[in-house]
Amino acid sequence: MPEPRRVRATAAAMDLLRRLRDSHGPLMLHQSGGCCDGSSPMCYPAGEFIVGDADVLLGLLDLRLRADELPETDPAPEDIAPVWISGPQFAAWRHTQLVLDMVPGRGSGFSLESPEGFRFLSRGRVYDREELSALAASAIITGADYELGARPAAAIEPQVVAEAVDACPVPERQG
């Protein structure tokens, strides 16, 4: 089984990221570990948040992509938004695919979307046994690895879903 993505995003989240990139330049995201705004994904201009050596790269969002698309060419640097998480938080979430979504409301004052009237929200989907096995066979990329040039392999599943439920299905309720 091919390695599943560690991070995906909804079409709405990607639209907001593109608007933010157009206003602020290249972006990065960090899954907050519980300070200030709880445990929220925080969006910064690229390089403004210092990634630690033990932080884990969940993936590189390609801002050119729409729902269900796969890239046909490599993206330009400004079209990439790396998504990071702290090492200890990754240890707790490693069994979960993070799905970046956007909802109405005001986010943290530190995150770029704060004045936009929306906030980013992390949703999650627990990997199945086959996916966990595929992930166990692959190395994670830490901040230290990234500095040395390590990058994730291209995934074969689309990274953008139309709606969160497309990546995080809600189980049917029984009578």
Task: Describe this entry's structure for a reader.
The chain is an alpha/beta fold. The chain has five helices and eight strands. The strands form two sheets. The protein has a four-stranded mixed beta sheet with strand order 7-6-1-8. The mean pLDDT is 90.
Largest sheet: 4 strands, mixed
Number of strands: 8
Q: State the share of residues found in helices, binned by percent.
A: 10-25%
Beginning-to-end CA distance, first to last residue: 35 Å
Secondary-structure element series: EHEEEEHEEHHEH
What is Rg?
15 Å
Short description:
This protein is α/β, with parallel strands linked by helices and 175 residues long. It has helices at 11-24, 87-93, 129-136, 143-147, 164-167, and strands at residues 7-10, 27-31, 41-45, 56-62, 80-85, 96-104, 118-126, 160-161.
What is the element layout, followed by pairings?
Layout: E1 7-10, H1 11-24, E2 27-31, E3 41-45, E4 56-62, E5 80-85, H2 87-93, E6 96-104, E7 118-126, H3 129-136, H4 143-147, E8 160-161, H5 164-167
Parallel strand pairs: 1-6, 1-8, 2-5
Antiparallel strand pairs: 2-3, 4-5, 6-7
List keywords for this structure.
single chain, 175 residues, alpha/beta, 4-stranded mixed beta sheet, 8 strands, 27% strand, globular
